[in-house]
What we know:
Blueprint: H1 8-26, H2 38-61, H3 83-86, E1 105-107, E2 110-112, H4 115-122
Antiparallel strand pairs: 1-2
Amino acid sequence: MNSDGMIxxxxxxTINSRLKQLSGINSTKDTxxxxxxxxxxxxxxxxxxxxxAKYEQEARDGGIVLSHVKKGEFRKIGGSLTIDERIGxxxxxxxxxxxxxxxxxxxxxxxxxxxxxxxxxxGPPPGTKGKGKGxxx
Length: 137
């Protein structure tokens, strides 16, 4: 465990967000939005606002008091990416985050380590290296 007391995916997400924040502070160029029709972008923003309004209405009906949101910001209602990160930015491939070498996966029953992880850590068995049959003709 580290000083934050976080392990696994939570630790990865925290480190990733800290690095993004630091790189954003030190960056000199502005982030550009993807070129797309303004009507399409407006539609994306409107659908997001409709979802947020529905979420807030359901909370109000259920007697839940939600925190206030800063002016000009969207309420975060779940999902892996925030609206600011997603709308208007082109993303061809999914960003997989930091490459932190970890072993196994954490479940409620403890750490589960697969045979593949064990083999990857231990390396190949001795004597299997370089025993090819030569050039096949």
